[in-house]
Design brief:
The protein is an all-alpha fold. It folds into 3 domains: 53 residues; 49 residues, Orthogonal Bundle (Arc Repressor Mutant, subunit A); 67 residues, no CATH class. The protein contains 10 helices and no strands. The termini are far apart. 26% of the residues are buried.
Length: 189
């Protein structure tokens, strides 16, 4: 027998929303924007939703349970050390999670200041079991994979040159990436 959901939605008090937020933070770290979105999905039907969300957020910040700077530092270190991603990818991910661009810039600069990006790209290639490309198609696939992983064209070209990929192929791939970066995105609209 299927249970029918009643039409009445649960009304949240500040204490109830705070308890929910602490539980969500207990499962994993979150940014301020992510946690606000979660709380709004719970209490969005209430007139005082924005007031409750802001109150709970301020309380969590005051208690140091919620801090975008420490989140960004931990996230950057994890993505750099464990997943071997480049700075561009980590910065994009943090922005997508709602971290302020100033915090992202500062955190990425600190996280990658002592990192040899060429070595990081080689580590990423090793982690993904990438081998020297046999033809242009494989070189293009590897180039795009490294670009998605957040490495600059300069680093990718250095890595592929070590694998004896032709300069003509590398120039074409760099131009392709430049054109893709210049194309208008949906975010701009």
């Amino acid at each position: 027998m299927a249970w029918k959901k009643s039409g009445a939605k649960k009304t949240y008090t500040e204490a109830m929303l705070y308890e929910y937020a602490v539980g969500a933070l207990g499962r994993r770290m979150r940014t301020v924007a992510e946690l606000k979105r979660l709380m709004r999905t719970r209490a969005g039907h209430q007139e005082n939703c924005d007031l409750l969300v802001e109150s709970v957020t301020a309380r969590l910040k005051e208690q140091r349970y919620l801090n975008d700077t420490s989140y960004a530092s931990s996230y950057s270190a994890y993505r750099r050390d464990t997943e071997k991603f480049g700075r561009i990818r980590v910065a994009q991910d943090l922005k997508a999670k709602g971290v302020h661009p100033d915090v992202v810039g500062k955190t990425i600069e600190e996280a990658y200041s002592e990192v040899d990006e060429e070595k990081l790209a080689r580590d990423f290639a090793s982690r993904k079991r990438l081998k020297q490309p046999k033809d242009q198609k494989e070189a293009a696939r590897i180039f795009r994979m490294l670009a998605r992983a957040g490495f600059s064209s300069r680093i990718i070209v250095l890595l592929l040159r070590n694998w004896n990929v032709e300069d003509e192929t590398l120039c074409a791939l760099e131009q392709e990436r430049e054109m893709a970066e210049q194309a208008p995105s949906f975010e701009d609209e």
